[in-house]
Specification:
Largest sheet: 9 strands, mixed
Shape: globular
Strand content: 15-25%
Number of domains: 3
CATH topology of the largest domain: UDP-N-acetylmuramoyl-L-alanine:D-glutamate ligase
Length: 443
């Protein structure tokens, strides 16, 4: 990866930011690189250790291409941790953004990226906003996002992800947010953290620097810390957004403020929008500009893709999964088909010792949601099936498949015209393969 700095830095500034050294070196750094293959003169190459490659082995190559290098072993700048060095440099760089008014950080078990994208739309009429691209939300992606912020940035909008305690605290130390959003406390990564209470503790690291917290109304694990609450149903929240067909109504402190049209389907997106609206309200964005921002939001702003394969409507949500996001997608199926609903379900990862119970609960929720058929893939299939049958699904409506191709064939054989089918699982379940096979079945 190679990113252009919004503001070039001198080597003196880099050494001060990373090592605290006060030296005179006027050479200019214009780009940050994490790949030696793209490095060149004027770049600062960070030897980062990844899942498959150790950047330390490419330091010499980066030097031969003219880049200055940051390394724990053999760089022009030698440090204890190259990731810590990258975070320190980003923190220093942020201090150079003289037009910056506010930094907004967003985390949560579900809906981080969608909330970030919606917030961007609501703020863009009022501020010059810079956001991290895609899900660049870890201890590499977040500092690189800050370092690429243009000189005239007024609002820095950052998503923060985590798998373990302490990770958000590290990102918060770098980004120093003024406003923090926690979209929800769910069960994602519960295998690493152990309980919802521990997940909440980890998410609350986002306010360790004193940021104002925007959080869901009525969430007992967060209510003590919440400055502004949001809801997609309860007008007692500080900001409430409700939906009737494609028309949204925004309430602030119980009073109707505005109405606007909103295209993305699914109740989970109304909650994301409520959080985004709360951010806009904190930044004193006018109701008129909030309404304009809402009406700009399209279905493409979400990670869900809805397609037609003949008389079958397919909801593709293969990026990630949790029990809570499955439940939200089951409700989305209600909006797409009044006649028949089904789901192809892959494994939810990182649940640890709770994996069996959560997959059993997933089956229960699928049956409660009135799904007509289930197509199951993965090692947890039997537990999903057991939960679904516990709440009334017939065994002959549940199909267990060994492969994505087999699951697609089962759908082709058993669907009914007008049906809406959800395809969903964690990234490692690679459910997009099933989508591809299903397209072939219907071609």
């Amino acid at each position: 990866m190679r990113i252009k700095l919004g503001i070039p830095l001198t080597v003196s500034e880099v050494r001060f930011a990373i090592l605290g050294e006060d030296v005179s070196d006027t050479r200019t750094i214009t780009h940050i690189s994490t790949s030696s293959e793209t490095s060149m003169r004027g770049d600062l190459f960070f030897a980062l250790k990844g899942k498959f490659r150790d950047g330390e082995t490419f330091v010499r190559d980066a030097k031969s291409r003219g880049a200055l290098t940051v390394s724990a072993i053999d760089g022009d700048i030698i440090c204890t941790s190259t990731i810590s060095a990258l975070l320190s440099l980003a923190k220093y760089y942020k201090s150079k953004l003289k037009s910056l008014r506010k930094t907004v950080a967003i985390t949560g078990s579900v809906g981080k990226t969608t909330t970030k994208e919606f917030t961007f739309e609501l703020l863009s009429d009022s501020f010059r906003v810079h956001k991290n691209q895609g899900n660049y939300n870890n201890d590499i992606g977040l500092p690189l996002s800050i370092l690429s912020a243009p000189k005239d940035t007024e609002v820095l909008l950052l998503e923060m992800g985590m798998n373990h305690p302490g990770e958000i605290a590290r990102l918060t130390e770098c980004a120093e947010p003024d406003i923090a959003v926690i979209t929800n406390i769910g069960t994602a990564h519960i295998g690493n953290l152990g309980s919802r209470e521990k997940i909440a503790e980890a998410k609350l690291e986002i306010i360790s620097g004193g940021a104002r917290l925007i959080a869901p109304y009525g969430e007992p694990l967060l209510s003590e810390y919440t400055d502004t609450s949001f809801s997609a149903a309860d007008s007692s929240a500080d900001v409430c957004v409700t939906r009737e067909l494609s028309e949204l109504t925004v309430y602030r402190e119980g009073k109707k403020e505005l109405s606007a049209s909103f295209s993305p389907l699914g109740p989970q997106f109304v909650s994301c929008l409520a959080a985004a609206t709360a951010v806009a309200a904190e930044l004193s964005v006018s109701g008129e500009k909030i309404a304009h921002g809402i009406e700009r939001i399209k279905g493409s702003s979400t990670r869900i893709s809805i397609m037609k394969l003949g008389e079958l409507t397919v909801v593709e949500d293969c990026y990630n999964a949790s029990l809570e996001s499955f439940i939200a997608d089951f409700k989305l199926l209600d909006e797409l088909s009044p006649t028949s609903k089904s789901a192809m379900i892959g494994t939810i990862m990182e649940l640890g010792e709770l994996s069996v119970s959560i997959h059993y609960a997933l089956g229960c929720e699928a049956a409660r949601a009135g799904l007509d058929r289930l197509y199951l893939i993965g090692e947890m299939s039997s537990h999903v099936k057991r939960g679904a049958m516990r709440f009334g699904m017939k065994e002959n409506s549940i199909f267990t498949a060994a492969t994505h191709s087999d699951a697609a064939k089962a759908v082709r054989k058993n669907y009914v015209p007008g049906e809406a089918l959800l395809i969903k699982g964690s990234r490692a379940a690679m459910m997009e393969k099933a989508v591809s096979y299903l397209k072939n079945e219907f071609t």
